Amino acid sequence: MNQVDIREVADAIEEQVEGDLALVDKIDGKILHVSDEAIVDVEEEEDFDHLLEWQQEERHLAQHILENETRYIQVPDCSDVDEYQMMEAFINSLQGDQARNDLSKAIRGKGAFRRFKDQIVTYGVRDQWYEYKDEQYRTLAMEWCEENDIPYKK
Predict the structure, then answer these.
(1) Taking the CA of residue 150 as centre, how many other CA atoms within 13 Å lie in the half-sphere pointing to its CB?
(2) pLDDT of residue 151
(3) pTM of the model
(4) CA-to-CA distance for 38 and 82, rounded, in angstroms?
């Protein structure tokens, strides 16, 4: 198997949306995206000749994936990631007491993510947050690759 690019795996985990599957091709190390809808259509043997060209291509990809299931492995989806816990850990890593206190208050209750994003700008730690978050996703991707015997390059 070719190595996967760990940044691509991390991005696939972070950017996955409901109704979309991200899979690693165990042979060439590429990441593929296919919709749940395409998989279901192929499983139910729906005719897709009438679909747009890109939809037909996706159905063919889904068909290939289903016919070669052992070749592909789904990357963890965003439901496997606790971004709230990630925010808490980031806040605890900060030096200033005032920033830690205000950010801790900001993430309590409804609207926590919006308030957090506003406060990281106020305290000038926005870039630190995104670096921290990226590193957390990279770590998750590396752990996942190791658990699934998928070679990767950093």
Answers:
(1) 27
(2) 95
(3) 0.85
(4) 28
